[in-house]
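QA checklist item 7 of 12: single-chain prediction sanity check.
[x] sequence parsed
[x] length recorded as 142
[x] structure emitted
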Amino acid sequence: MNFETNDIPVGGTTAHLWHGGDGYPVLMMHGAGPGTSAMANFGKVRDPLAERYHVYATDMIGFGLSGRKESAPYFDYQLWLDQMQTVLDEIPAGAVRRLHRAVYAGIYLSHHRVQRRASQADGVDVSNPRRSPRIVEYRGDP
């Protein structure tokens, strides 16, 4: 499966975004553990999902191939919220399915700035995709 990548400007730095596949959009969001990135958390499941969905994923700012802040706080909750809104704006209008690795990603979507799009989403949550990918919650196709 071929995935397109690009860097999008967010808050004075960049967020690395990749996407590919066909179908209903799925946004993958990783947590904030050491050495994490979208590929580290979702690399094993992105190709199978892209056979059925249009998969989007971003490295959170400060992680993976995304840029870094030049001044503290380096891990900036508000900047991550801005990033999630910017990424959602890159996805065609309509509902978005979410797939997240950690509590941090779920919190991003509950914030009022991104809730308009996220409230339309069904949930897909992955349990430890690095070791043994398995969907632990699935609420049907749109």
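[x] summary fact logged: The helical segments are 38-50, 77-90, 103-110, 115-118.
[ ] second reviewer sign-off
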